[in-house]
Amino acid sequence: MQKDLTTLLAERDAQQHKAELEKLREENLRLLQQVSDRIDLAKAEITDSAITKTMAVLDHTRNWILGIFTVLAFVIAAASFIGINGISNKITAIATDNVRNWLRFEDSDNDTGSHKILNDLRTSALLDSLTVRSARDNMRGVGLGHVTLTPAEKARLMALILDPATDDAQFSDALNMVVKSRGMFGWMSEDRTGKQIVDILTNNDYSNSKRAYVMYAMRRDRSLYPLALNIINDNKAHYNENMLMDAFQNVKLFDEQRARKFAQEKMNSFKRADDRVELAKYLISIGADGPAIDDLIAELKKQETPESSGSYKLLIFARISQSLKASPQKIPVAAGLISTQIDAGLEATIRSFTDEKPAFYLSLGNNVDSSIQPENLMGNAELVDAVVKAKPVSAARLQRVSDFFQTTDRKAWITTLMMTPAAITQLKFDNGQQVRGDEILDAVWLRVEKKAGQPALIASWRSKTGQVHEGVIADVIHGDKAQFHVDFNRWQLNSYSEQRTLDSDFY
Length: 507
Known about the structure:
By secondary structure, the chain is α+β, with helices and mostly antiparallel strands. It contains 21 helices and 11 strands.
């Protein structure tokens, strides 16, 4: 069967562009609906709270007015001595002072009656408003995860945080808003606000749950560093693993040498597999991979059951991610790692979970990883070529690696493997046809598709006579002399990167 290669590629590109437009349209509709749903939900919750508490204010105001009428007779009697105009001014002044006192947002000695009710209402409304605004900005990708507070708002939220009697929900909401309002410069400095919050950790008046909120919210904050360092250095206090890991998450941002030593010490002594994996991932990320992590992977593999999460695979993903940063001299090692995992079932896919936008994932069994930027893998031609040639380039090998490097989204090709054959490279097809590399113009488009219900390696190419050919590859000779790369549209591929925000990175 012969087709014009230009037509094939044009059809493929047309499908890609059509898929891009459809994807963008669906994504816009999804985001708009999410924003609308979340704002409507927040409005409903705030409205219900406002109605309930406002009615309490109205009841209190009604009682207060009835009290005014009770003494009205006395007021009228006194009018003959003071004068009607003076009484009117006096009543107006009293009423104005009371209303202003009720509505005052700042702290007041008057913590009863309508002032307290309205103050609680405004505090709840403030927290609800800030939470909705933050979620909306985060979903839109604007604001860089930062929340702007007025001095009065910040003072009110800090009053909630510094009061051990504040309920847990308001405490955690206020804490999140204040931490976000500090911005990156706040996280990297030990300011008064940060120290006040961190001091809660050593204050026994606070519940354990509140101190856990503080430890988590401040885990990336410089203000926590002195205390976190003391925790991981104290061998006598017998802190539990959760506390030690929270402290480690902070120390690793400001003291790599101490964090590295801690991870190496605790990776094999901690009991929880998740904590051991987290420490090993950190060591991999700073280039401190080694035999100890090989032993940990082997140990976790032995402990794996059909019901377990396969936590050792997270270390495989971490190693692959780190290998993509390898210098040219280390590409053969990186290629060997990826090749081994391809043989173990590693897949590159574009998929969507629930209502989320499609994204690029590496998957190994039931475990997936979205942290790898697809262009770092697909766009490194030297690495792609080395992965293909990590084992002898047979037809079966080409089919396996072609299947790994090809991805689709709604039946449109996103990435596919391409081969530029050497002059002595030969391709043999299932129909008996043979083609030498010196008979092929430019590159061969490789892909795995089903033929008669079975996966088959398909090749499309243009001969030097201008004809376009397509066939099922049965054998390859001198495939190691060819050059391999992945074909993709850069903008389109990067659109499948996981959209990370400061909220996901810092909170």
